[in-house]
Amino acid sequence: MNEPNLITIRVWGDYACFTRPEMKVERVSYPICTPSAARGILEAIYWEPQMYYVIDSIHVIKKGRWFNFRRNEVTAIVSLKEAQSWMMGRTLVKYISAGGGAPDAAQRNMLALMDVEYLITADVRPSKLHDATRFNLKKYLGEIKRRATKGKCCHRPALGCREFAADFEWVSDLQTTLETRAADVRENQNDKDWRNIWPEEDLGLMLYDVFDVDQREEGFRWFTEEELERVRSDKKFEGKAITPRASFFHAKIKESRMDCHPDRVNILPARGKEVF
């Protein structure tokens, strides 16, 4: 692991739900942010095909509190072909009814977290599409820092579910931020030792990611107009199709920190043909 390539982002929010994939209907959150959710937060701030993130660790500042509520979720979906047909005026627009008692809605319970805060540390690596003659890794590190410092993002980061928006900021010194935030939490919660918030716990199997790290190392690039026309006509393209497949790891908390680096944890692929 190359230490200069490590970055840390502080994220927090009022609500979070990192859905367990084994729960098919009712949403139930993991007790902590998953590595895939942490990667999604960083990619929402900045991402390029020539680089990718490997989550190193997640420090817990606020463990959060469990709460449950019931909400209306839609069961209908809109396909791309339907949307194109509406745009061309071939068929009438069919609206999705999401209100209580609507035919397209279903009431479901959710067990989520309230008031969470994490420090996400990640290793920034160049993909195989990286051109060392044109760019270097310092360019990406500098862009991530500038965007996170100014609060810029490609789209709003979320704490698991998209409706649970996440606030974020750049962290220059991990240890200093840990001590500063620990003092704030201790003052607000009257806790003499902030590490007693989550001293140690075995969380068992947890979703690691839906894309393999080695596959993300390959990177990808956008089609040119000529290539796009050839794909549309011949239905062929050069490259390798990547199918999302869930992988898991044995998650453990020690002193409010969860180690996530693939070089230090054992990542297990999903059995069978399940794709979450």
Describe the protein.
With 276 residues, the chain is α+β, with helices and mostly antiparallel strands. It has one domain (3-70, 110-269): Alpha-Beta Plaits. Helix content is 24%, strand content 31%. The protein has 6 helices and 10 strands, in the order ββαββαβαβαβααβββ. The longest helix has 16 residues, at 174-189. It starts with 5 loop residues before the first strand and ends in a 7-residue tail after the last strand.
Ends distance: 29 Å
According to CATH, what is the topology? Answer: Alpha-Beta Plaits
Order of helices and strands: EEHEEHEHEHEHHEEE
Give the helix/strand class: alpha+beta
> What is the general shape?
globular
Most strands sheet? 7 strands, mixed
Helical amount among residues, as a percent range?
Answer: 10-25%
Q: What is the count of DSSP helices, taking H or I runs of 4+ residues?
A: 6
Tell me the name of the CATH class: Alpha Beta
Features:
Alpha-Beta Plaits, alpha+beta, globular, 31% strand, 276 residues
Question: What's the gist of this structure?
Answer:
By secondary structure, the chain is an alpha+beta fold. The chain is built from six helices and ten strands; from the N terminus they run ββαββαβαβαβααβββ. Helix content is 24%, strand content 31%.
